[in-house]
Amino acid sequence: MATTSKIPAFMGSKHGRTAKGANAAIFGAPHGTPYKGIDNRIHAKAADSFRLALKDDALWLDHWDFDLDGPMLPDSHFKAVDLGNLATKAADGRGNRKVIENTTRTILKEGAVPIMFGGDDSVPIPFIAAFSGGPPLTILQIDAHIDWREERYGERLGFSSTMRRASEQPHVWRIVQAGARGIGSARKTEVDAAHDWGAHIITSRHIQHHGVNSVIEHIEPDSACLISLDLDGLDSSAMPAVAYPSPGGLSYIQVTDLIAGVAAKARIAGFAMVEFVPKRDLNGTAAFTAARIAGQVLGHIARQKN
C-alpha cells in the first residue's frame, strides 16, 4: 500500500494504511510511465499541495458548503482514509504501473471508492485497469486533449495514450470526453480511431454554447462512472499550474457541474486528478481550486446510496 505522509490528511479524511471499513480512500501517485526527454518529476508534489490547500477548510466540516447545498460530509458514518503517497520512481514506468494498479485493486476489494492524485496523465492507465472484474465501466474524461495515441516516442503507456489504452480494456464500455480544444498530440488518425471506437467527444466550445448537459446526456443512468480529470481541462485563467495550459477551457463551475451531473445520474466509482505542476502555482490559488474540485467529489461520494 501507500507510504504514510507527515502532511495533513486530505479534507475530512484520516491517515491510514488500509481502506478496510472506509467508504473512500485517497492516495497520491507521484509518477507514472515516463517519456524520454519529458520530466515527469514536475508533478511529484501535487498530492501534498492539495492536502495543504484545504488544511484550514478541514476545520470547518460542519459548516454549510454552498456548492453541495449542505456540509461537505453530511453523513457522520461516512469514513474517508488518506493512504499517503505511493513510493513511485520517476524512471520506473513498469514498477509505477504495478503499484498503482495493485493499490487501486486493494481499495476496491476493501469496498472503498479510490481517489487518486497524480502524477502525469499516464497514471490513470493502471488505475483504470484495476477496475477489471467489476461492473461495466463508463469513463468521463475531462481534458483539453483526447489521449488516443497508439504510441509516442515508442512508448504505448504514456500520457498521450491514456484513453486509447482504456478503450482496449474489456470492462470499459463507454468513454465520454469533455473539454477538448486547441492543438495536442492527436492527429486525424487518432480522432478517427476515437470516433470509430464509439467515444463521445464533446469539445470545450460545444460545452460553452450548449452547457454541461450535452455531456451528461451520454452517461448511462445508474452506471458505474470513473471520472478522470486532467486539470488542463480547466481554462488557463483558472488553472495555470499545469504542464500544458490552454485558453478556452472549462470553468470551475462547469467542471463541478459535470461531477454533480454524474453523481445525480450514475455512481462515481473512482476519481483521478492529474497534471498539476506545483511550481507554477505562484500564489496557491490553483492548488486550492483543484483541491476544492476533489472535495466536491468526496462530498458526492458521501451522498451516494450504493
Can you offer a commentary on this structure?
- This protein is of the alpha/beta class and 306 residues long.
- The chain has a single domain (14-303), classed as Ureohydrolase domain (Arginase, Chain A), CATH 3.40.800.10.
- Helices cover 30% and strands 19% of the residues.
- The strands form two sheets. It has a nine-stranded parallel beta sheet with strand order 1-5-2-6-11-10-7-8-9, with helices on both faces. A two-stranded antiparallel ribbon has the order 3-4.
- α1 (46-53) crosses α9 and α8 (252-265) packs parallel to α9 (285-303).
- The model has no long low-confidence stretch (mean pLDDT 96).
Question: Describe the biggest sheet?
Answer: 9 strands, parallel
* Series of H and E elements: EEHEEEHEHEHEHEHHEHEH
Q: Report the CATH topology name.
A: Arginase, Chain A
Low-pLDDT runs of 5+ residues are none
Number of domains: 1
Arithmetic mean of pLDDT: 96
Radius of gyration: 17 Å
Top CATH class: Alpha Beta
How many beta strands in the DSSP annotation?
Answer: 11
Number of helices: 9
Quote the distance from N terminus to C terminus: 25 Å
The proportion of residues forming helix, as a percent range, comes to: 25-40%
Query: Can you tell me the CATH architecture?
Result: 3-Layer(aba) Sandwich
Shape: globular
Q: How are strands sequenced across the largest beta sheet?
A: 1-5-2-6-11-10-7-8-9
